[in-house]
Amino acid sequence: MTDFGTRGSNGPSESIRAVIFDTDGVVTRTATVHEAAWKALFDEYLRRRADHTGEPFVPFDDEDYSLYVDGRARYDGVDAFLASRGIALPRGDPGDPPGRETVCGLGNQKNEHFLAELRDHGVEPFESTLVLVRSLRRLGIATAVVSASENCAAVLEAVGASETFDARVDGIDAAALGLAGKPDPALFLEAARRLSVQPIHAAVVEDALAGVEAGRRGGFGLVVGVDRTGRAEALIARGADVVVDDLAVLHIDAQGRWTVGADQRVEG
Prior knowledge:
single chain; alpha/beta; Rossmann fold; 2 domains; 10 helices; 13% strand; elongated
């Protein structure tokens, strides 16, 4: 077993009093559902645009998802991806009908694709994450779940995890409170506030590059990157203190010491 400490400490992470988990890709297996929805949206839009302008059709791919939309609020993701292709659309209004050629219209269309994917294919939790959360709560360590999605509550309910966490901050909260999306740390900072803990005494667990960067920028005591897609180096570059393949390798004892199984890959 290998101990690892919080940022700025010289020893194990005894100071961690709360852990804040991203939802998609960390708690639930919805990252692939989101990616499928984004691809359906952008491939449809880009093909229509190519037919109209004569530009070549270049489909949305895994790298686009990782760099521009993963972990971001829906409209921010639309804006970031379109900018990467040199496309500028008016922002529009959140009430725009799905498919209208505005940032909000496309974002609303993405939501329809996501709900259809969720309905058709369902969603599963990462059981190892839920095991860790239950262990933390038995030790008196507070937990929160964060998501840029407005569908977070429905996703957690679908996997029976609605009552698993002490607090939740999602896209609905972000809109109501005017919280900036990742890589801004606002969502994580609000979760820490709701848990009554200072960021330096909280850990962030993320699989998205934008989310890891948000944890670093927010001054959190520990940022754990979860690498399920072979991008450990990128997670470290964005600010992860440690990267693991799955949260099953993490252990915490009654003194708050975090360790990683000796037979597992740890980077950072």
